[in-house]
Amino acid sequence: QLIDLNINNQSSIELNQLNQTITQLQNQLIILTTDKQTMQQQINSLENERTQLQLQHEISINKIQQLSQSQSQLINSRLQTEQLNFAQELDHLKTRLFEIGEEKAHIEEQLNEEKQQSSNKIEQLLNTIKLNEEKKQENSQKYDDLVNKLKIEFEKTNEEKNQILEEKYKIE
């Protein structure tokens, strides 16, 4: 019975550890999902800024046409540089968003594997508990049988003792 208790305690500890690992992976998945949403908001914000810059660029082009050609080239160059910088930042954010998506998929895969392993271990633990219960019932039955045999033997011995005592008293 002590061995059964130790096995059951060990099984409970393993089960708790698996549940903690699953909770940690779920928390990481939530964080990555939040990061992805934040990145998407930043991308949307940059897209809006880019649209505004394009509008400003078009307005500036109209103004540039009114200025001298040397001034217009300088202003156009600056606007193109700003657009290029924003485009590069946008590309970087899109790349990071893709990476987060891959990380999320990897964590989801790990989480599914952990869940499957947990499920398998739980099934093994339940089978072990079931076997232990069956052994316990077997041992309980054997114990009851043994106690009954001992009672019968004790009664026989007691009867024999009483007969011997009766014979002894008769002889005396």
What would a concise description of this structure say?
It contains 2 helices and no strands. With 172 residues, the protein is an all-alpha fold.
Counting H and I runs of at least 4 residues, what is the number of helices? 2
Mean pLDDT: 87
Structural class: mainly alpha
Task: Bin the strand percentage.
Answer: under 5%
Instruction: Name the shape in a single word.
Output: rod-shaped
Write out key terms for the chains shown.
172 residues, mainly alpha, 98% helix
Write the layout of secondary structure elements.
Layout: H1 2-66, H2 69-171
Q: What does this 3D model show about the protein?
A:
By secondary structure, the protein is mainly alpha-helical. The chain is built from 2 helices and no strands. The longest helix has 103 residues. It is rod-shaped.
